[in-house]
Amino acid sequence: MEVLKIEAEKREEFGKRPVKRLRKSGWVPGIVYGPDQEPIPVKIKFNTVEKIFHHITETTPIDLSIDGKTYRVYLKMVQRDKLTDKVVHIDFYVPMKGHKMRLNIPLKYEGKPIGVERGGTLEILVEELPVEVDPDKIVDEIKVDITNVELGESLHVKDLDLPEDMKPLLDEEEVLLVVIAPRGLTSEEEEEEEAAAEESAEPEVIKKGKKEEEE
Predict the structure, then answer these.
(1) How far is CA 208 from CA 201, 204, 211, 215, in A?
(2) What is the pLDDT of residue 213?
(3) CATH code, domain with 153
(4) What is the CA radius of gyration of the chain?
(5) Please, are residues 119 and 85 in contact by the beta-carbon 8 Å criterion?
(6) What's the pLDDT at 84?
(7) Which has the closest alpha carbon to 142: 133, 124, 159, 129?
(8) Are 43 and 59 part of one and the same domain?
(9) Phi, psi at 192, each rounded to 5°
(10) What is the structure's pLDDT at 199?
């Protein structure tokens, strides 16, 4: 997993007006904290934020350099302006060794379901899985093979093949996706219809009566 490197400085500006001036001068305020880390107010150049923050997720490991000292952190929260959508504040989390993290990991669904091949519609309900995991076992994404999902079938949390020691924070019966059958049919009902259609398509055997044969 690639580690992102970001430069930051300790922040001395606090309060609405000073922070507003900070933003106008081209900085984004933030905070660094963790279970074994005293909070450190920081600021990062706005240009740096614009370049990299469209590609960062909760699972991206970051080496945050603050006045010459480097901290391994993860993105915890990004606040954006409601009107401009610009980043206005960033929270970084410093995990503690042996202390599990809670975060959302993207689910990467791979393959085309059999049910879709047969005319069904794929509906994805969950795109990110909330989990509890050790920091050194965080993955970029969880790959999920959905090729064998039939018409009317769904995929649940319990069906996932998760990395060792990763605990999902959703109920095991939670539905992740479903393949909706056309006209509301289940795969079993469709098979019955296909069987009935095949039976009706068989050539009819016409038996001649005795009188007809004699003629």
Answers:
(1) 21, 13, 8, 11
(2) 45
(3) 2.170.120.20
(4) 29
(5) no
(6) 86
(7) 129
(8) yes
(9) -65, -40
(10) 56
Tell which wins on pLDDT, 179 or 137: 179
CB-based contacts of 97, cutoff 8 Å, min separation 6: 135
Give CA–CA dist 208/145, Å, rounded: 57
Model confidence pLDDT, tens digit, residues 24-75: 999 999 999 998 899 999 999 998 888 887 778 888 899 999 988 999 999 9
pLDDT of residue 186: 52
Reading the block at residue 28, the tokens are 């984004």
- Give the H/E segment covering residue 156: strand 154-156
CA dihedral 59, 63, 64, 69 (to 10 degrees): 150
From 67, 93, 119, the end of a domain falls on 93
When divided into structural domains, the chain yields a total of 2
Residue found by looking up tokens 């603050």 in the block? 66
Alpha-carbon distance values, 72 to 4, 49, 56, 63, 68 (Å): 10, 17, 14, 5, 13
Three-state secondary structure call for residue 128? strand
Instruction: Give yes or no for residue 152 having a pLDDT over 90.
Output: yes
| CA dihedral (185, 125, 154, 60) positive or negative | positive
Nearest to residue 135, comparing CAs of 40, 70, 60? 60
CA distance 124 to 154: 10
Residue 57: strand, helix, or coil:
coil
| DSSP secondary structure code for residue 159 in this structure | G
